[in-house]
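Blackboard transcription, Thursday session:
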Amino acid sequence: MSAFVGKYAEELIKNARYIATPGKGILAADESTGTIGKRLSSINVENIESNRQALRELLFTSPNALLHLSGVILFEETLYQKTCDGKPFVEVLQENNVIPGIKVDKGTVEIAGTNGETTTQGFDSLGARCQQYYKAGARFAKWRAVLKIGPNEPSELAIQQNAQGLARYAIICQENGLVPIVEPEVLTDGSHDIKKCAAVTEIVLAAVYKALNDHHVLLEGTLLKPNMVTPGSDSPKVAPEVIAEYTVTALRRTVPAAVPGIVFLSGGQSEEEATLNLNAMNKLDVLKPWTLSFSFGRALQQSTLKTWGGKKENVSKAQKAFLVRCKANSDATLGKYTGGSTGGLASESLFVKGYKY
Amino acid sequence: MSAFVGKYAEELIKNAKYIATPGKGILAADESTGTIGKRLASINVENIESNRQALRELLFTSPNALAHLSGVILFEETLYQKTLDGKPFVEVLQENNVVPGIKVDKGTVEIAGTNGETTTQGFDSLGARCQQYYKAGARFAKWRAVLKIGPNEPSELAIQQNAQGLARYAIICQENGLVPIVEPEVLTDGSHDINKCAAVTETVLAAVYKALNDHHVLLEGTLLKPNMVTPGSDSPKVAPEVIAEYTVTALHRTVPPAVPGIVFLSGGQSEEEATLNLNAMNQLDVLKPWTLSFSFGRALQQSTLKTWGGKKENVSKAQEAFLLRCKANSNATLGKYVGGSAGGLASESLFVKGYKY
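(Written on the board underneath:)
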C-alpha cells in the first residue's frame, strides 16, 4: 500500500472507527491556557489552575453526558489533572468509554509575504511528545490549520504549507499510536457567499488529501475536522438544508471513503445553529461513506459556561445544560434532532472576527 | 463550487449515472484501425473496412447482449458506420438504451529522459472534435493514460504529465457535453507483487484526483476506468478475493464518493479472470459509494472473435458467445456470478508484454 502500516495500524483503525460511532461525537475541551482565560473572564472567573480544573471536572462528571461522546480533546495541562477526589480525568473518561485526545499544535504564526495568512507550528519533538501523551492515555490528537478567504486568499503557498503541515503531523501521530484529527479550518470571516466558501473548501480538502497520500498517511486511521460550508460572516444567513447540501457535496468531491468519520468544527456558530446544520446533513438523502458528527468547543460549552458562572451552587444546573447540548448533537448525528432545546443562550452567535484560539 | 458547472452539467451527471447502472457495463470496441488489425490477423481476417464493419455489426446486433450494456466505446470510423441494412450503429445502440462513446486520444508517445514512460496525445482541436462527436450522437469519451512499474517508475514526471493530461482532457469533454472516462492504466508488466501495484495505483489515483480538482472537473459527471490491483505479470497469481480486497482498498483511499461509477479495464486478464475478479469485488462486504463495473475490450470479445473467425456462417454462434460474456459480467457487477461460463477460450490469458493499443 502507499500507506505506512506501522505497529499501531490496527489500533488506529479501531480507535478512529470507535470515535466515529453514530450517535456520538467529540467535546473539544482543549482550549489553551490563554484561550480558556478569555472564556473564564467572560463569566468573571479568574484564570487560575483550580478554576480551569473546576470547569473541566464539571463537564467530565456531568451525569449521562459522556454517553453521547466518543472522545474529548484535552489541552496538555488537563491531560494530567484530576477530579477533586483525586481521580485522573483520563480515567474518568476511559471508564465511560470516552477516548482521551490531545491538542498537539502550538498555535499559528503568520507567513511572511502573505496578507496575514498563517501556518501552524508544533513539530519540534512532536514524535516524542506524542509518545508521552500515549503513555498518559491519549489515543487521538488534534492539530488546527487555518485558511482564510479574501481577494487573493487562500494563496497557493498557504494551502500547501497547511496541507503539508497537516500531513506531516498526521504521520508522526500514527507512528506513535495517536489517531490524527486533521483540521483544515477555512474561516467564516468575510462577505463572500456560500459558493465561494464551497469552492475554497473543496480546493483546500483536495490539497489536504493529496498531501496525506504523499506522506503515506493511513486514511482508515484518521478523522477529518472541517468547517461546514456556509456564507461568510458578513453575508446573509441561509437555511440549514442549504448548508447541508453544499457541505456534503464538497465532502463527497474530496474526502475518500476510507476516512471513517467527519467531525465538524462549529466555528462561530451558535449552539443551536451548529446542531441544526449537523442534523440537516444527516437527514440529507445522499450516500455518505463516512459518519458526520461533531467536534464542538464553544457550541457545546457556551450555555454551560454562562450557567455555571464559576459558582459551586450552579454546577448541577450547568451540568444539565451541558447534557442538553450533548444529547441534541447526538440526535443530530442521527438526523433525529427536533429542535427546541434552545434557550436564549443556545441561539447566541459565537462568532468573533479573526478569532484566535 | 470549485467545479466548472457549464451548460451540460445536468446532462453529464445524468449520463454518468446511467452508465453506472448496476447490472450494466461498457463494451470497449474502440480499437484503432491498427489495433483491430492485430485482432483480425489473429483469426486470419483481412484488415479492411468491411471486415471491421462486420465485426462491430456482429457485436451490436447480438440478440439480448445490449441489455447488459450501458455504453459502448467506439473508434471514430465506427461512429459513422452503419449496419448492412443501412442503419447507423449509433442508432442501433441508442434504440437499445446503450450510450455511444468515443475514443478521443491519439495514442501515446515516449517522454524524453525517462525509461520508456509515455504521455498521451490528442489535445489539438480536441474541443472541436468533441463537438462533432456530440453531434454524431456520442455522449461519453475515453482517453487512455499509461503508467508502468519499474525500479524508478512511475516517475513523478510521468505521473504528473498523465494526471494533468487526463484532467485537461476531462474538462474539455465536459465543456462539450461528453462524460469523460478517466483511464490511468498502471500496466501489469513486471515481477512486482500486489503490494507494489497497490502502492503505485494509490499514488497515481491520488495525483489524478488532485489534477481533476485543479482543473475544475465536475466529478459527478465523470467515470473512472482503472486497472485492478494485481501482482505483476511475471509474478504468481493470487485469488480473486485478494485482488478484490487490494483493489477496493486502493479505490477507497483515493476515489471521492462523488464519482458515480468505476468501470475496470481488463488489461491482459482472460475473460474468465476478469469476470471472477469483478465479481469478487462486488461481493466484498464493505461500503462502496461508486458502482463497480466493467469496460472490457479483449475480455468481452476474445471468444467471440475466435468463434467468428471472419465467417458469416459463424456469426450466430459468435453472437451467443458474446452474450455469454456480457451476461457473466453483468452478473459480476451484482456479485452474482457463479462461474462456469468459461470454455477453454474464456480462460486464455490475453496478456501481451508491453501491449500497445
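Lecturer's comment: The longest helix of chain A spans residues 194-214.
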